[in-house]
Amino acid sequence: MKNIIALAGSNSKQSINKELAHYVANQLEEVAVTTIDLNDFEMPLFGIDLETEKGIPENATKLLEILQGADGLVLSLAEHNGAYSAVFKNSFDWMSRIDGKVFGGVPMLLLATSPGARGGASVLEIAKARFPYNGGNVVADFSLPSFSQNFSSEGITDMELRKDLDVAIDTFKNAVETFEK
């Protein structure tokens, strides 16, 4: 059985991106889904002096092993001032000190959502441009605008957006099925 990791690039306890990542990953059939919370992998603020003095945090190694051990990654990025959240960027920076190819070629469905009409489009563009340099195999992406208006406990409520998400999920599913570590 394929192992899918759902992860939000946020440390908010009420993260809408975590909710979206969890929901999307669980739309896949015949896979094991594990939802990861960055709050369970706290790390000090990255700095070369800190790394030299104390080494790489154990949680960076643990998180990297989880991501690289997966058969697929559903990552929903929170957008803070048009870019990654500080907690995601910090985790990403620490993991890249262990292995520059952080994502290890694992198929990735890249998501973003926000309360606003752009749905995290800026951070998605940054990630789609950056992640391939770090082993990111972004096979599909999806932006959900106006989260509270377009998402409910039943999922995506806007039918056009739902169709777009279904296409992204199918593309991701096909990539996961053929992925070999």
From TrEMBL:
Residues 3-141 form the NADPH-dependent FMN reductase-like domain. GO terms for cellular component: cytosol. Signal peptide: none annotated. It comes from the Bacteria. One of its GO terms (molecular function) is oxidoreductase activity. InterPro entries: Flavoprotein-like_sf, FMN_Rdtase-like_dom, NAD(P)H-dep_reductase. This is NAD(P)H-dependent FMN reductase. It comes from Ulvibacter litoralis. The lineage of its organism: Bacteria, Pseudomonadati, Bacteroidota, Flavobacteriia, Flavobacteriales.
